[in-house]
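so the lab meeting is tmrw and i was supposed to have these ready like two days ago... anyway. pasting both below. for each one the top line is the aa sequence and the line under it is the C-alpha cells. i havent really looked at them closely yet so no promises
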Amino acid sequence: MFFVHLNQKQDSKKGIETYTGKQTDAGLIETISDLSRKTLLCYTLTDFERIINAHEKKIASLLGQATVKELLFNDYPNSIKSLGAWGGDFILATGSKQDMAYFKNKGYTTIIAFDDMIA
C-alpha cells in the first residue's frame, strides 16, 4: 500500500459544510461507521480492499459525488481510498511498488510507501 499526493488541496471547511447541509439517513451513517471499524479488524488485503471500496462508494453516495477512482483512476486495477476532504490531498492505494509507476506515469510525483509514512 502507498499514499499518493494529488496536488488538489481541498477546503476541509467547505467539505464539512457540504456534508452538514445534506439530510442523512441514520442507517447509512451507521453503515459507514461500521465499515470504518471493520478496517481495523481485517487480516487480508482482499478483505481490506472490499471494505475500503464499500466505504468509498457509501461516502460518494452520501456526498452525491463520484469516487476519486472513478474520476481520476478508473483504469487502476487495485483499490483507492480518499483521505481528508473528499478528493483532496492524499489517497491510499493498494498495490505493489511496481504499481507506483502507474501514478508516476500520470504525473503524480509524491508517492510514499505505507511503511515510510507510518514509520
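ok protien two:
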Amino acid sequence: VKALRSQDINVKGMVAIFSYGFELATQNFVDNDVELTTISDYDSLIKQAVAREYVPEEDLNTLESWRKNPSEWNAK
C-alpha cells in the first residue's frame, strides 16, 4: 500500500481470498486507512472444520489460541 501511495495511486481497499485475522495485520490496515474485504477467514475455517468433523472439537481451543498469538505459541 505504501509503495502504491508513494506513486500517487489512490488505494481505497484491498480484497483477499483469506485472512488469518492476526491482530498486527488488522491494525496495519486500520492505521493505513485501508478497508480489507475477504471471502473467508481463519475463525470461519476452523469452525467449519469442526462442524464437518475434519478437526476434533477438543482441538478448537488450541487452534483459536494459536491464532491469537502465533509467534509466541507453543504446543502444550
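from a quick look at the 2nd one: The two ends are 38 Å apart (CA to CA). DSSP finds four helices and two strands in the chain. will dig more after coffe
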